[in-house]
Amino acid sequence: MMQTIAKIDNVTHKYKGAAENSLDGVSLTIHKGETILLCGASGSGKTSVIRLLNGLIPHYYHGDMTGYVTVNGHDIAKTQLYELAGIVGTVFQNPRSQFFSVDTDGEIVFGPENIGLEPKEINARKEIIAEQMKLDKLLGRSLFELSGGEKQRIACASVAALLPEIILLDEPSSNLDMQAVSMLHDIICEWKKQGKTIIISEHRLWYLKDIADRVIYMDKGRIVREWSGNDFAELSEEETKQMKLRPTNINERYLALLSGNDESGSRHTDVSDGIILREFYFSYNHKPCLLRRKIFTAADGDDLSLCIPKLTIPKGKVTAVIGSNGTGKSTFLRCICGLEKDCTGVIISKGKEYRKRQRIGFSYMVMQDVNHQLFTDSVEKEVLLSMKEKDIIRCHEILDTLGLLEYKGTHPMALSGGQKQRVAIASAIAAGAELLLFDEPTSGLDYAHMEKVGELLRQLADSGSTVLVSTHDPEFIELCCDHTLRIKKGRVDSLD
Asked: Strand, coil or helix: what is 320?
């Protein structure tokens, strides 16, 4: 007989200030050693279930709640969060929200230090976790220097170092490249062998189909369907689409491409009509002199974080910018739009040159962490802010297309991560720039909203805009991208 380690009993919950319930009569029994996958569209209640199990509901996220939750014999409503530290570990969608240190080593050992372990035991745990998760290249580094995917790996390591009985993961792969997803898959398998109970809320499903014992499908705060892991893996692409889920199987060609395992080698597509990038050089290690700044050239070689003597981007097309975490994709986009002020480089379009500050007006970028570019107190005002000439009708059309019209009066910071991402995309569309840059726009999005973003990028390209989109999603590339541009160590490795 399987031992119950956690139980959610008829829970209904509404966040403070919300109009609708986040959970509606949810009941779920979790057995010791089980691996459960929670799936469903954005806003279906997956993250709220995670918050029930780690105690953030009701102790941090206040609101109206009925029903009961027990975890390893503890009544969650009567148990303080610190009492759950050695029982439940959580990896959040945005790893920055759970960091307490400024360097990787300090973050990994923070949990064990906090529960009072001996220094010898703390160091032993760090070494074991670092070896298991292949973190040797990330140790001894500042957290501020890491890419989004690298931060997620450190967040996983910091949770694993506490050796909890239950591990909760909320969209753990959203910012990871294919190699890192493969590592995450192996780590979850290792946790499973150790007898851990694992609950994963995810939109990416293909890498978990051989791991999950049970799959729970949620919709509008309710558990609607349940499958065994094997039965779920057999669902057709049409069946998953109908439930607004990403596919359980991915085109092997795109997996190989994103993993860097395709055997076709370095190559470049001939581009007759395009936007030319010339002499784009940049280094994060550059320290300007007091009287003058160093002018970078290709001769600086390996010292450069970005080294692109010349590149022609296909005009009026959607080009996927691919490459491993930390290889320079975000740096590439930031340099193009002028966010990195020390970056040299000229953009040439229709015979006109754009330098330094001029690049800012020529392009518009949607950042990976959209919290950095949400400024107003309503969704409607946010989109209008990007327009050269205010157009309420056009604003509402864009919001309606992205499924955001009902939130036009809502403060952007009150939205979910996926909704914030869509607001930023709406602002980019409204800006009408000639070159549009998107840094991981589909991370955290369900299939339906990913499809909408893909359709919008296609419309933008068809209307004459040139789109560069950094992505790790093979589904998204297959959906809307005309070309792929691989960045490797700040250099252009291939353009297909």
From this structure: strand
Is-contact 465 439, C-beta < 8 A? no
| Selection from 133, 237, 262 nearest residue 189 by Cα | 133
CATH number at residue 168: 3.40.50.300
Residues whose CB falls within 8 Å of the CB of residue 456, separated by 6 or more in sequence, listed in order: 401, 402, 425, 429
Task: State the total domains in the chain.
Answer: 2
- Pairwise CA distance, residues 435 & 455, whole Å: 17
pLDDT in tens, 427-472: 988 888 889 999 988 877 888 888 888 888 898 898 888 999 999 8
Of the candidates 93, 2, 38, 54, the one whose C-alpha atom is nearest the C-alpha of residue 208 is 38
How far apart CA 35 and CA 32 sit, in angstroms, is 9
Q: Are 309 and 472 in contact (CB under 8 A)?
A: no
Tell me: pLDDT of 265 over 70.
no
For the entire predicted model, the pTM comes to 0.80
Token pair listed for 424: 């930023």
**Contact in structure between 213 and 30 (CB atoms under 8 Å):** no
* pLDDT tier, 272 (very low <50, low <70, confident <90, very high otherwise): low
Q: Which two tokens stand for residue 160?
A: 């694993």
Beta bridge partners of 297: none
363, containing H or E segment: strand 363-366
Residue in the block written with tokens 């789109």: 467
Q: Are residues 439 and 317 in the same domain?
A: yes
246 and 266 in a single domain? The answer is no
Residue 268 and residue 248 in one domain: no
DSSP SS3 for 199 = strand
* Contact between residue 36 and residue 214 where contact means Cβ atoms under 8 Å apart: yes
Q: Which of 256, 260, 238 lies closest to 248 in space, CA to CA?
A: 238
Secondary structure of residue 284 in the 3-state scheme:
coil
d(CA 139, CA 178): 21
466 and 380 belong to one structural domain: yes
